[in-house]
């Protein structure tokens, strides 16, 4: 099953937030969806530019239809892309699918959010929260971006390990996103932790390896 089918990606704007795997998921979905329609990848924060899509600062319908998939963003001095000058509503009018990386986690597998985060477009029809399974069993202060916020919301201590239980407490307290994808679940232990997490949540949850192109629905 393709990733877009597993996640039920519909035409319109889909936002990706949370920890490890957002950019990888966005570009994997773009490859699949470009066989079904036109796709724009973009960000409300910062992303690394793709090596398989044209990068445009300003997008027009003809360019999107010609390439089938493009990445919209303004280059930064650090070599990344930031939000394009066009609004998300304007981009949504130019392509069948708009995929937005709407969060930053500084490369860490788990993200807790401050009040102004994530930067999800108001026009997003769905939001997917990503969690990196490599964070399980590591100390919170090492595995979590905004670990102070994680501890405040869950009651855990900075030296405690990330567990299915405290991660479920975080996701429940933040109430962000329509579904959860546990990435990097490449071992029986990681899948077991993901399944335990699924049993503690009341929203769709998926797990697998985006780089390995293997995934499954847990709930």
What does this structure look like?
By secondary structure, the chain is an alpha/beta fold. It has 8 helices and 14 strands. The protein has helices at about 5, 20-35, 60-65, 90, 140-145, 145-155, 165-175, 190-200; strands at about 10-20, 40-45, 45, 55, 70, 75, 80, 95-100, 110, 125-130, 145, 180-185, 205-210, 215. The strands form 3 sheets. The protein has a 9-stranded mixed sheet with strand order 4-5-2-8-1-10-12-13-14, sandwiched between helices. A hairpin with a 4-residue loop joins β13 (about 205-210) and β14 (about 215). The mean pLDDT is about 95.
Features:
219 residues, alpha/beta, three-stranded antiparallel beta sheet, single chain, nine-stranded mixed beta sheet
Brief description of this entry?
This protein has eight helices and 14 strands.
* Beta-strand content bin: 25-35%
What oligomeric state is this? Answer: single chain
Main β sheet profile = 9 strands, mixed
The strands making up the biggest β-sheet line up spatially as 4-5-2-8-1-10-12-13-14
SSE blueprint and pairings:
Layout: H1 3-7, E1 12-18, H2 22-33, E2 39-43, E3 46-47, E4 55-56, H3 61-67, E5 69-72, E6 74-75, E7 81-82, H4 88-92, E8 97-101, E9 110-111, E10 124-132, H5 140-143, E11 144-145, H6 147-154, H7 164-174, E12 179-183, H8 188-198, E13 205-209, E14 214-217
Parallel strand pairs: 1-8, 1-10, 2-5, 2-8, 4-5, 9-11, 10-12, 12-13
Antiparallel strand pairs: 3-7, 6-7, 13-14
